[in-house]
Amino acid sequence: MSTLSRALLRHATKLSSIRQFHITPRVFQERYYTKKHEWVQILDNKKEVRIGISDFAQNALGDVVYCELPAIGAKFKREETFATLESVKAVADCFMPVDGEISSVNEQLKTQADLINKSPYDNGWLVQAKMNKTTQEHLLDEGDSGGVGESSQQVTTMKYAEKPPPPRNETNLSGLKNQGATCYLNVLIQTLLYTPEFREPLFRLTPGDLNLPANYNDQNASTTNGNNNPKIRKIIVELQRLFAEMLLLNQQSCSSIPLTNSFGWQSNEAIDHQDVHELNRLLFDAIHKSLQGTKQANLIRLCYEGSTINYTQCKQCQNTFKRSEDYQDLPLVVQDSPGLQTSLANIFTISEQLIGDNQYRCSTCANNLCDAEKWAKISKLPPILTLPLQRFVYDIKTGNREKKTTRYEFPFEIDLQEYCEESVAKTNYELFAVVIHRGTCYSGHYYGYIKDIDQIGTWIRPPPKSPSMKASQKAKSSNTANTSSNSNESHESSEETMRKLDLVKTLLLSCDDWITTEDLLKSYRENTTTSWSRTRGAHGTFNKFLRSHPEVFEVDNNRVRLVEQNYSMEVDNNDIYEMEYESSQNEALDENAEHWFCFDDSIVTCVTRENIKKHYEQNECAYMLFYRQKNRSKSKDDSATSTPFSIPQWLFDEVVEKNRLLEEARENYDKYQNQFSVTIYPSDWFEIVDDCRLNLNNKNQVLFPDGYGEHVFDKRMKVNEFLSKFESKYGDGSHFYVAKKLRSGQLHVISELTYSTNDKTLDRNDLSTYRNVIIYKYPSSLPDTVLQGEEFEPVMLNIVYGFPDARIRAPNLQSTRYVAKNTTLAELKERLTYDYYRNANPQQLRQIRMGKLNLEEKNNRKSRREYKSEDEKQTLAQLHLQDGDTLGIDDKNSFVSNWRDVSSNNTNLGKTQLSLTVKNSIDPNYTKPMTYSCESTTLIADVKLMAIEAFGVSLEPNMCRLFIDNHPDVAHIPLYDHDNVGEINFKDNNTQLCLKFGPALHENDLLLYILSDREPSSLELVVDQNMTLTDLWLLIKQELKMDLDDNEYHLREVVSSFEDDGTPLNDFHQTLTNNGLSNGAQLTMRPGSVPTKNHVRLKVFQIFDKIYKQPEAIHTVPLYEMVPFDNVFELPVISPFNVLRERIAQTIEFKVPPNYARDTKPSEFIRLYEMEDDQPVSIIHEPVLTTLKQAKVQDLGCFAFELLSHPESLGKKDLLLNIVYDKNEYGSGFQHQFEVHWPLKENIVAKYEYLEQHVLTRLTSFMTDHLHFKNVSKRAFKITLARYFPDRAQWLIIDPRSATSSSQSTSKKNKTSSTPTKSNLKLEPYKLDDLTVIGVLEGEQLTVEDFDTPYDQKMRRQLERETEQKRLTREKTRTENDQNKTNGSSGRRRSPQNTMRIDVDDFDA
C-alpha cells in the first residue's frame, strides 16, 4: 500500500468507508485513475502521459506545503516512488502508475505547492513521462477497444466522477453562492451587475489599466508584479471576473470567494451577519480608491453621486445662507411615514423653524442667536439614485435596536421635480432594484428583486391563479370569522409553499434522475439561509412535503425525482384558462416589457410587480431602493468590441475555457451516471435444472471466452440499438435472454430481449435491474419448457422429512429444492409427497401436513409453525418464504420429538451448487475473472487453488487469500481456508470473490487492521485469536517501533462507518475473542491510557497544610496545600475505600507508632477526602461497605488524604466537626481550633444534649493538654454553641430550647424557655455535616453578635453588593426581554457585531 493511500486511509479513519468504483476507460478517455489515487492522462502524441493525484487525495492530505519531484530523465517502474508530497497532516509518497521515463516536471510546484490543492487536474499536475512500448500499447488498447460494449475485464482503473455544478435554469441567469452569511454581499453585487451605467464602464478597463501581467491567472495573482512594477488592482479585477462569469458562465451560481479574498477577508468573516447599506458605502469607497489613476477614476461619482443644498434664512436680517452636501445615497426615515413621497417631502419640501432653544447663530447678526427657517433641496440628481430605508432604529428608552415593519409604499415611477432645485432637468426615475430583508435587526436574510434592463435573461410571466383557485379561496375566506388576518396567513402560507416548491424543483432540475432525499435536503440547506426545521410549519418533515406533492415529485423510499410531464390531449378548464392567458399576454408583450427577477443567492426566478408590492410591509420588507433615470441614452463605447456585453477579451476567453471544461465535466459525469455493467454468458456454460434455473457447468473453461464477460453500456441506449450491436457481434438470429443471479450464484431467465416498436432505453428494461445476459447463438435457443419471468423465480428451500420411516428414505431424496415462488403450498406438498411415496392420492394428501422450521430453537414445540389448510392456497411468495428457509413435512400420525435430530439424519441437507466469480487482484495486468461452479461444501482453499491455476499466478497458496468482493462492509475481511463456500454470507445475491496477496488464514487466525497516528498506513496483523490483549499490544509496539513502556495509547474497535468508535478494549489479560474481536476487525489507536476492565484509576493528593484568608479567620473554609502522587492507584471497582487507604499507607511506607495496640492498622491513620474543583470537600467514612462502583467513582477521579497523629474510625452516621473556641482580647477572631468526633449510631437523633456533652468533653481535654489548665471540670463550664455558614458569613445560635430557632433575636432581652426539644441538628436550620464549623464561647444566652467578627461583617457587605448587582442585572435583562417580545424579536442576548472591512492598496501615487 502506498504512503499516499495510507494517508487517505488514515484520513477516512474507517476502512469500510473507502469504496472503489471500477469502470471502463472508454467512459473517461481523458484520465485513468489508480487505486492509490494517482491519475494518468494520455497526451495528444500518444507517447507521453501526464501524472497527478486526484481531488479526493488532495482533500485527504490537506494543504500541501512542499513537493519533491524527480529529475528529468529519471526512469521508474510501475509502483516505484517518483515523488513525495508534504502537507500539514502527513508526508505521502506518490507511486508511478506506469513504466516510463520522466520527460517534464511541473516547475510551478517548487514555489507554489498549493496548486495541487487548488487545481489537482490542471495546474497541479506533477510530472510528464514517456511510456515504454508495452505500457503504451496496453493503455491505448484499453482506450480504443471496440465491440458491443466496453469490456471491463481489462480495467484496473478506479474513478469517482465528481458532480459538476448544475447549469443555469430556465431564466438563463446565474446566481451567487452564499459563503455562509454573505447574502448581503450577493444582493449588492447582483444589483451592480444589472446596472449598465456601472457595469459597462467597468468592463472598459483594459489589463493595462489594471496593471495585469501577461500570465495573470487566479492561482498566481499577487499584489505586486515584481519589485518595480505597479500593483494589481485586485478588487476591480475580481469584480470584472465575477461579472463576466455571472453573465456568461453556464453555471447555476458563481462563487464570490475570489472577490472576498481581494477584500482581504478571512474565512470567518464570511459567516458574520452584516448590513447591506454599510457594505454599499464600504464597497463604493474601495472601488473609488482602486480606480484612482485610471480612466474610470470618477465612475462612482458619475453614477451615484448627487448633491443637496441646505438653506437657512435668518428672520431678523432676512439673509439666506447656503451649504452644499454631496451624497451617494439618501437614507429615508420609515417610522411614522406611509410611503416614499412622504419621506422625501419631510426632507425637501417641509421647512423647519429654528426657534426657542434651537435658535440659529447668525454670522450677519454679530453671531447672535436668532429665529430662523431651515429647508433643503436636491441640487443634483445622479443617474442611479440609492434610497436606503431606515428600518432599524435605536430606542433610547429601552436601549435596544428595533426593526420597523410598518407599511411603507414606494412607486415604480417617480418625478422628483418638487424636491429639486429648478435648475435640475432630468427628474423622472424608474425603480429597477429592491433589496428585501427578512428577519430581525440582529440577524436575517437579504435577497433582491432586480429589473433586467438589458433583457439578458429569459423572462417567463408567472402563471396567474386559475378561476377555480380564486373561487375556492374566495369561498374559504367567506367562511372565515377573521377574514383579513386569516386570508393574509393563507396567502403567506401559499406563497411560502410555492417558494419552496420552486427551489426544490430547481435543485432537482440540476440532477440526473434519482437523488436521495438526504442529498436533496443537504442541497436545499446549501441554497437557503434557513434550515427546513425552522420554516417547515404546516409542511411537516421534508419527506412529508415531497410526498404531499405527488404531481411534482416521484418519491421512492429514500429517493426522489421530478415527475415526467406526459402531455396528453385532455386538459381541464384551468389549463385552458392559463393557455389563453399566456397567449393573450404573449401577443401583448413587446421588447419594452418589464422583466423582473428575484435573486435569492444562487436561485433566480421570474416575478412581476405584484410580487414586489407584497413587500410594502410584513417581516420580509423592502430595505433598499434603487432608481435610475428614465429614457437614458446608452453611452457609446470608447472602443468597439466583438465580445458580448463588452466583456474584456482576456476575461471572455477565460470564461469560454471554463464553459468548455464545465461541458466536458458534465458530459463525463453524465456518462458516468448512465453507465452500467452487464455480464454476458455463453449458453454452453449452463445446464437447465428444475425447468426454472440455469446451473453453471463450465469446469473445463472457468475463464470467459473472448467477447463474453463484463461489459459496460450506456443506460440511455435504445433496446433495438442494443440488439443490433449484439447481432452484429454474435450473429443474426441469436437469442439474448436477461437473467437474474440467484443467491446460489445460478441464473434464472427473466425475459428475452426482442425488437419492439415501442423502443425503450436500457434503463427502463429488465436488463438495468438484473444485468446478466445469456446468449444462445443461432440456431440454438432456450427450450420452451424453461419457465421465464420474475414470478417463476425459484426459492431455495431445505426440506426435512418427519415421517416414521424418514431415516431410511430421506437420505435418498433431494433435501434442497428450488421451487418457483408462484407455486402454492398445496402444489409443493403434492410434489414432495409424490417424491416420497411415489404416490399422492387426495386421501393421503389430507393426512400430510407442513410447517416452517426453526432448527435453532431448542423448544421443539416452538421450532415448527404448522401451516393451516387455508395457507395451502397461498403461494410461496405470499407466505414470505425466502432462500434458505426450512420446511418440515410429516403426517398427522407422526410425532417428531426433535426436528433438529430428524434433520441431522439427512446428510444431503444444505448441499447445493454455487456459481462463484473470482477476480484477480494480485496481477493488475491480468484481470479476467474466473467463473466457477462448485458445491456448497467445497473448501475455500480448493477455490483458491482453482483460481491460482486459472490465473497462472506464481504464488504459493499460503501467501494469498480470498475476500468477498464489491461490498465495502465485508470487503476487508478475508475468508478462512478451512471454511466451505456455503458458509460465506454473500450480500445481495452477489457471489463474487477476489484473490489478494497476503498470508492465508487458518483456524484460530485473526486478521486485524491497526490505525494509528504514528504510521499513515494501516498495520495488518495476522494473530492467534487466543492471544491476550496484552500480547497484542506488545506486538503492535514492536511493529510500530514504539517504546515498550509507552502506555499513552489505547485501542478501540471501529464499529461502523456511520457510528462513533466503540468502547476501549481494556480486558488485557483475556483473549482477543473474549474482548469481542473477530476476523477483519478494524482497530484504531487513540491517545490516552485506559484502566484494566472493571478497574478505575485514582489520582491521590497528600494534604500538608491549611491556609486561611486571614490569620484571625480560622472559622472560615481553608485552602488546602497538597502535593500529588506521581503514580495513580488502579483498583477494582468492587473494592471498598478502605483498600485505597491501605494502598496509600503502603506507598508512603507508614508504620503504626509503637504506643498503639498491635491490631491497629496503618490505614486507620489515613483520613480520605473527596475532591471538587481541586479542593477537598467531604470526608469518606469507614467502615462502610460501599464499593467504588456503588459510589460512582469515575476513572482518574481525584482524592486527597491527610496523615493523622492518631487512629480514626468514622462510622456511617458519625460527624467530624471543626470547633473554634475563645475570641482574642480584641474580639477580632477566634484563638483556638480543634476537632470533635461526634459518634452517632444508626437510630440516634443528633440532639443538642449529645453535642454539648461531646464538645465539653473535648474542650476540657483540649484545655488540659494544650492550654495547660489544671483541674478543669466540664460541669463547671457554661457554654453557648453557634453554627457558622461560610457561604453567607453568618452565625446561628444552636439552642433547640428556643420556640423558633431560625428566627433568633440579636438582643439579649429575648430569653428562651427551659424546655428542651428533640430537634435533629442534621436537619434545618442547622444542617450539621462533616467539617461544619461550630463556635464555642463561655457563657449562657449569648447572641450572634458575640460570635460575629470584623471579617464576617466585611464579607456580608461584599455579598450584599454582589446581590444588589445581580438584582440590577436581572431587572435590566427582564426589561430587555419584555421589550424584545413587544417588538416581536426573541429575548436572547446578542453578541456584538464584528466590524466589516475592505482592505485596499494605495493607488493615489
UniProtKB/TrEMBL annotation:
Q: Where is the signal peptide?
A: none
Q: Which InterPro entries match?
A: Biotin_lipoyl (IPR000089), GCV_H (IPR002930), GCV_H/Fam206 (IPR033753), Papain-like_cys_pep_sf (IPR038765), Peptidase_C19 (IPR050164), Peptidase_C19_UCH (IPR001394), Single_hybrid_motif (IPR011053), UBL_USP40 (IPR057763)
Any single GO BP term: protein deubiquitination
Q: Return the Low complexity bias intervals.
A: 477-488, 1300-1319
Q: Which GO terms describe its cellular component?
A: cytosol; glycine cleavage complex; nucleus
Q: Where is the composition biased (Polar residues)?
A: 1380-1396
Q: Which GO molecular function entries does the Swiss-Prot or TrEMBL record give?
A: cysteine-type deubiquitinase activity
- Residue ranges annotated for the Lipoyl-binding domain, each copy included: 48-130
Please list the residue ranges that the record marks as compositionally biased, kind Basic and acidic residues: 1353-1379
The record, for PROSITE patterns, names: BIOTINYL_LIPOYL, USP_1, USP_2, USP_3
Domain named USP: residues = 174-630
Q: Where is this region: Disordered?
A: 139-173, 461-496, 1300-1321, 1353-1405
**CDD domains linked to this entry:** GCS_H
| Transmembrane parts of this sequence | none
Its domain of life? Eukaryota
What NCBIfam families is this protein classified in?
Answer: PRK01202.1
- What's the name of the protein? Glycine cleavage system H protein, mitochondrial
Provide the species name: Adineta ricciae
